Amino acid sequence: MQRQEPTQEVSAIQLQEVMLENHVTDKPPQPAEELKEPPGYTVEEAVEAMGFGRFHVMLFGIMGSASIIEAMEIMLLAVLSPEIRCEWRLDDWQVALVSTMVFFGFMLCGVVCGYVADRYGRWTVVCGGFMWGAYFSLLTSFSPTYGWFIFLRSMVGCGVAATSQGFVLKTEFIPSKYRGLLLPLASVFWMAGSVLIIVLGMTVVPTLGWRWMIRISIVPSVVLILLFKFIPESARFQVSVGNVRGAMETLEWIARLNNTQLPPGVLREPVVKERGQCSVLVSSTFRRTSLLLWYTWFVASFSYYGSVLGSSELLEKNLLCVTNADPHTHVRHDQEGAPCYCVPFTHQDYGTLLISCLGEVALIPLNIGLLSVVGRKHSMAVVQVLSAAFFMLINVCTTMFGFTVLLFLLRSVVAMNFNIVYIYTAEVYPTAVRSIGLGVCTSFSRIGGMIAPFIAQVLMSASVLLALLPFAVACLLCAVCTMLLPIETRGRALLQNS
């Protein structure tokens, strides 16, 4: 009995110790697990950590080439104007309607493409736009009548609206400190597309005709469709729809290409339930920004295509006020009784258009400097004031060389304006509505593109001064509007949610 008592006491002590241990160890498990949880990072932090590398060179080359396609489709209108005018005996308003219908297709499809890109992905929309545009551009070359021609060109406009979403896809992969440097360089690709279509017009149209020029011009689209498989879907979009695994695979692939590493931890981003909602654009957060941007985009397109189509019209009809013109330039085609102006472009005309296209890249260093030093808002205001000044100077009597220089500078500043407004729009809206925000903006811009031909191509015949004045006034008003924008996006991280 005496041996059993200590045994019982020991057993009681042991039991008490076990209960005490369980009591102590029952409480800390949750804090212990929280301490062991790996740190997290966002897509923005991953993009910034990976920096600039081989992936971005490939991205910039392939997605920049999309600007070549868009520029070729737009400049095609300026090069073809004399040819279709003569073939179908068109009046001024009918020639202007061709450009208007292209922008009409762009306007209708811009919002739809933006919505689809926010809901189902940027990659799908951009790749589909390449195929759509190439297909209907090819069909355009077989147009039997003027009616079929403008219908098919409007379908091409829908394809161009989809490919413009490539700017969003490109922007979402570029670190913030490189956006001000790399995105303005996209003008090089736009200039390359403009130059390519002018060279095709100079070489192919006089020999094989305008239909073969269109067929040859779709070759870059076909090549780009094949290269596009190397571009991944936007990681920002993938996490917004809850596809964190897909985003991780994309970011890991980019890190391997760039020979860098992702931040330590795991990718954590909240799922964005409301994507592609137009109501966000007019919410209290973005209402003022959206309204001012819509007018800014209208003016950007209005002034840019006014300069492109207006210069083409001045050269085609020889409406220039020059002091040392050659005999060809002195000819004014005032054939009121004639059904059309059957006057094709000369090599000198093509040369003037070619030089003016080079102006789109001449001021890229100035563009980069303005974006880096004064920011997006003030840069837009500066180039819009310069655009207004050069539009009015076009009306001044000068030499042919002087006109070429003025046209060169005008194309430079209006191209800069278009580039800056693209950058600002892609930076100011969050990922959830970035594509539809850009889509709505581009739709407003195409309204400007629809109006521009009737002023630059129809009113120009009546009065050069009256045709240039609306462009100058619109640019001045737009300069005031851009200063009222509430947000400056220079150096700011891209937002994921509103």
In short:
The chain has 498 residues and is mostly helical. The protein is built from 24 helices and 2 strands.
Describe this structure as you would to a colleague.
This protein is mostly helical and 498 residues long. It is 75% helix and 1% strand. The chain has 24 helices and 2 strands. A two-stranded parallel sheet has the order 1-2. Helix 21 packs antiparallel against helix 22 (400-428). The termini are far apart.
Question: What is the strand and helix layout of this fold?
Answer:
Layout: H1 4-26, H2 29-36, E1 40-41, H3 43-50, H4 54-87, H5 92-120, H6 122-140, H7 146-163, H8 166-171, H9 176-182, H10 186-203, H11 205-208, H12 210-217, H13 219-227, H14 235-240, H15 244-258, E2 266-267, H16 278-281, H17 287-316, H18 327-330, H19 347-362, H20 364-373, H21 375-393, H22 400-428, H23 434-462, H24 464-483
Parallel strand pairs: 1-2
Helix pairs in contact: 3-15, 4-5, 4-7, 4-10, 4-13, 4-17, 5-6, 5-7, 5-23, 6-7, 6-13, 10-19, 17-22, 17-23, 17-24, 19-22, 20-21, 21-22, 21-24, 22-23, 23-24
Strand content: under 5%
SS-derived structural category: mainly alpha
Spatial order of the strands forming the largest sheet: 1-2
Order of helices and strands: HHEHHHHHHHHHHHHHEHHHHHHHHH
Cα Rg: 29 Å
The number of helical elements comes to 24
Large-scale geometry: globular
- Poorly predicted runs: 1-13, 15-21, 23-27, 324-340
State mean pLDDT (0 to 100 scale). 81
Largest sheet: 2 strands, parallel
Number of strands: 2
First-residue to last-residue Cα separation:
79 Å
